[in-house]
Specification:
The protein has 371 residues and is α/β, with parallel strands linked by helices. It has 14 helices and 15 strands. 40% of the residues lie in helices and 16% in strands. The radius of gyration is 23 Å and the shape is globular.
Length: 371
């Protein structure tokens, strides 16, 4: 019997290749940050058939099919038709964004994507929040399991939005039968230009330590987050997933590795001053952010581990990359300073800023009374 025509044989090989059998994946927030890294990763994967990239501007991944629109636009449902999985990464957690506008974008965007995905026949949505939703509390277990209660409050930057996203994730399968929702919760995220209150902690001239607190630092490199998201996309694991490096670092280890000395303050002073600074608009970080530098919120990542996933980065390696990324930046009490201001602040700038907050507030109050 003669062998098949070469073109027929090629077509057969293509139709049975992993990519041909793999899912069509849509990624929101695909033009920057984790979204851009994940889009590139999925587009290069032999296990993914096609990547649909959605953002308000076009990104650099030429292999993806791009759609330019706001995720809150109901027209997104048409762009999701034909997709098997949606990874929703279009969240705004920028410290400088107006809090009300940030919440409106994050909550409405997630609602729209979940509804549009169900309408378009998508069977799985992957959401990304943060391990911060577990809350940073003195009685937290080390480490926390994925099933641990979400005890965070809305007092830290963006955490209220993330808790609402978690609520929407739990409700969506009931509202849209047949829709599977997976939630991925990374530890302190580092890499890819990530800028949060927790990464800015390492831009200060001293590491603020609240007396009597018990910090435990666990990091998550963006590359490990992307590989965990890929596991969820390919249905190797589902449910609520925590992701981070193995284990954690004690505060003393962080100080030794970073070479940055601590500045220890009583709890009442640190929290009170941070609250005042934020209230009068001098810092972008509310006092609630301090809790995540005071108490542990380390996660086990057991579900991903049981599925065969392992982090490629250690806490020590991620901390080293973070310190390299923040070189040359100067932050006091969460506020970035220019070079001139940083020089004026000096080595004890963090303490001066915090202890000086009360005086600043007193002066502001006296000025208002005179008016």
């Amino acid at each position: 019997m003669s062998s098949p025509d070469p073109q027929v044989r090629a077509a057969r090989n293509q139709s049975t290749s992993p990519a041909a059998r793999g899912p069509v994946v849509a990624v929101t927030g695909a033009a920057s940050g984790v979204g851009a890294l994940l889009t590139e990763r999925l587009a290069a994967s032999d296990e993914v058939k096609q990547v649909i990239a959605i953002d308000e501007r076009r990104g650099e991944c030429a292999a993806a099919q791009w759609h330019i629109l706001d995720v809150r636009d109901p027209a997104i449902a048409d762009k999701l038709r034909g997709a098997d999985v949606v990874v929703h990464l279009a969240l705004d957690l920028d410290l400088e964004t107006d809090a009300a506008a940030r919440t409106a974008y994050n909550v409405r965007g997630t609602q729209t994507v979940l509804t549009a995905a169900a309408a378009a026949g998508v069977h799985r949505v992957v959401l990304c929040t943060s391990a911060m939703v577990y809350g940073a509390l003195p009685d937290n277990e080390l480490p926390l399991s994925e099933d641990a209660e979400l005890r965070a409050t809305a007092e830290a930057t963006g955490v209220g939005d993330l808790l609402e996203v978690e609520r929407l994730a739990r409700r969506a399968p009931r509202a849209h039968p047949g829709l599977n929702v997976t939630v991925v919760r990374p530890a302190v995220l580092v890499g890819g230009g990530t800028d949060t209150a927790l990464t800015r902690y390492f831009e200060s001239p001293r590491l603020l330590v609240v007396a009597g607190s018990r910090p435990a630092w666990q990091f998550c490199h963006v590359e490990d987050l992307c590989s965990a998201l890929e596991y969820a996309v390919l249905e190797k694991v589902d449910g609520e997933l925590a992701v981070g490096c193995e284990g954690w670092l004690e505060q003393e280890e962080v100080e030794e590795l970073s070479g940055i000395r601590r500045m220890e303050l009583p709890s009442a002073v640190a929290l009170g001053a941070a609250a005042r600074l934020h209230r009068i608009g001098l810092t972008p970080s509310p006092a609630g952010d301090l809790a995540y530098t005071m108490y542990p919120w380390v996660v086990s990542g057991s579900r991903l581990h049981d599925a065969g996933w392992r982090p490629q980065w250690t806490n020590e390696e991620v901390l080293a990359e973070l310190l390299e990324e923040v070189t040359g930046r100067h932050t006091v009490a969460g506020r970035r300073l220019g070079r001139k201001d940083a020089t004026a602040a000096g080595a004890a700038g963090a303490t001066v800023a915090l202890l000086g907050a009360a005086a600043v507030v007193r002066r502001a109050r006296k000025a208002r009374r005179r008016i």
